[in-house]
Please model this.
Amino acid sequence: MLLLGLVAAAPARRPAPPAPQLARIRYWTAPENTRLVLDLTAPLGSPPQFRLADSLTFEIYLPKARKSQVVTTEFVGDSLVADIFPAVSESGCSVRVRLKRPTTPLGFVLPAGDGNPDRIVVDVPAPPNPEADKQLAQKVTELKRSRNLIVAIDAGHGGEDPGAIGYRRLQEADITLAIAKKLKSQLDIMPGVSGFLTRSGDYFVPLRKRIDIARRYQADLFVSIHCNASRDRDATGTEIYFLSLTGATDEAARGLAEKENAADLIGGVSPEAGDDLLSILFDLRQNDTIRRSSDLAESMIDAVGGDSRLSTRGIKQAGFVVLKAPEIPSVLVEAAFITNAREAAILKDVQFQTKFAEMLAQGIDQYRTQHLRATSN
Ligand SMILES: [Zn+2]
Model:
């Protein structure tokens, strides 16, 4: 009775919120890093702690967090990470990562948003490899000598950023990669042209990094492949974009650029990535580059008009981050609407992907011919 009396006298308290739980461990292998993502059910009360146990083991400690029973050891086994062990202690839970090579991982916390939970992202970078860098530089020099047009093909999204989710859960990131690979094959068989991919598998690449990769290959053109999405399930057609520095063609174009630019929020870009937007905006080369981008967009939309299954919605402009290399003519292709049942079906169709890639390659070839004529005059 005494106990009851004590309880009654205590001030009313709200129940404490449930402790955050480590709900899932995900990972992706990219050419230059392995990315680990620890999904949480709620934000951590205090920040996670990163600790190097020895040169090949590091630990991420999540104070006061619990571990879901479904979270178990992950055997990664790529060139950088051996495995990931979750463990619980009285004061919280921890995740121990065994590396295959000594390197310095970089971790950051991302808040929930865009359909993603609160999460901790850890990038395990490949150690510097001067020999590989030298080989790439040599390869690029040779390419430059033998080919007069090098095209960066950029498959939108990837990794934890699936892009738009379309009809019957079709994922934009899968379609963009399939079309990008086919476009590379098409370009590589064209005389004087060579294509390379800014991502070649299912992993996240930040938007600015895509431009960096294009620069590393001394790309002459940059073609980003995406699929459009709309709440209006009847919306259909192909759009090709080039950069606008002064505002989008219309409200829909602005909204689309905002959605595509949000990729970095979904994948998360570490604060060190920096922001060179201002210096890029005032780059004097940009006007000429934008004129060439417009020419490229025109050649490509003409070529795409050759398929009766697609309607073209024309050329538009908006402020896509991925188009902002001041020296590389760049376009962004919204192939078709992944949210429309009929267009989702053709986007998934391998024959259509090949045909679409062929048409894009024709457009690029058309641009090349015009451009060669212009420079030889
Ligand atoms: Zn996209």
Q: What stands out?
A: The two ends are 102 Å apart (CA to CA). The domain at 130-376 is CATH 3.40.630.40 (Aminopeptidase). The CA atoms of residues 7 and 15 lie 14 Å apart. The chain is about 35% helix and 30% strand.
